[in-house]
Design goal:
Layout lengths: L13 H17 L10 H8 L3 H5 L5 H24 L9 H18 L1 H14 L2 H23 L10 H22 L11 H16 L5
Length: about 220
């Protein structure tokens, strides 16, 4: 997966790579409690235990930092999703189990960095961030088709009159509901929150019901 570089220079030495990782980790932690607009370079380097010079030696500006965090997240998403698909149980799993596995996977990976993903989503929605949209398109165009083809191999067990439509639209319903609940529900005072286990079970159930799945 190759995108427009967001860093001034990719670190080559181990120490330089560690410094960059510390900066990214510190920024991700801060974004759990603050918006991207509230985040400052001074706070990031203080939490990272490094310097402003080290920051600007790796990032052009704050936007470059957010792009690097975005790249790291999508690289992690792609790597772990591909590992899931290559696992021994993937090819033999029923559509129901595939959906449950993918739903649990998405809840886990999106739940790890809610603050970062809120910031990325806001930037893409309100500022038209083209690089974020490019990476999101990669996920839909290159990763989702693996799940789509695996599910459609079992379309004979789906009662929906148009299985191909149902597989795609059903997954979009699952994904966007999951993302909205994980990222925004905790910010609404007085609203119920759902455990990861409950969310995975209910979203999988809704997707399978929409497909008209006949089986486990």
């Amino acid at each position: 997966m190759t995108f427009t570089p967001s860093v001034v220079q990719r670190p080559q030495q181990t120490r330089s790579h560690e410094t960059m990782t510390q900066i990214l980790d510190a920024a991700a932690r801060i974004l759990e409690t603050k918006t991207f607009e509230e985040l400052t370079v001074t706070e990031v380097v203080r939490q990272a235990g490094t310097s402003v010079g080290a920051f600007y030696g790796r990032f052009k500006d704050k936007d470059g930092l957010l792009q690097a965090l975005d790249e790291r997240f999508f690289e992690e998403l792609a790597r772990e999703f591909l590992a899931l698909m290559l696992s021994p149980a993937w090819n033999d799993a029923s559509a129901a189990e595939l959906i449950r596995q993918v739903t649990r996977f998405l809840i886990d990976i999106y739940g790890r960095q809610k603050g970062l993903l809120r910031s990325l989503t806001m930037k893409a929605r309100f500022y038209g961030d083209s690089q974020f949209k490019e990476r999101e398109r990669y996920a839909w165009d290159e990763l989702f088709p693996h799940l789509e083809s695996a599910l459609l191999r079992q379309s004979h067990r789906m009662r929906h009159p148009h299985p191909a439509l149902a597989v795609r639209l059903g997954f979009q319903q699952l994904f966007f509901t999951l993302r909205e609940v994980l990222l925004w529900e905790p910010l609404l005072k007085g609203k119920p929150t759902y455990s990861a286990q409950m969310l995975a079970a209910e979203l999988s159930r809704a997707y399978l019901a929409y497909l008209g799945w006949e089986g486990d």
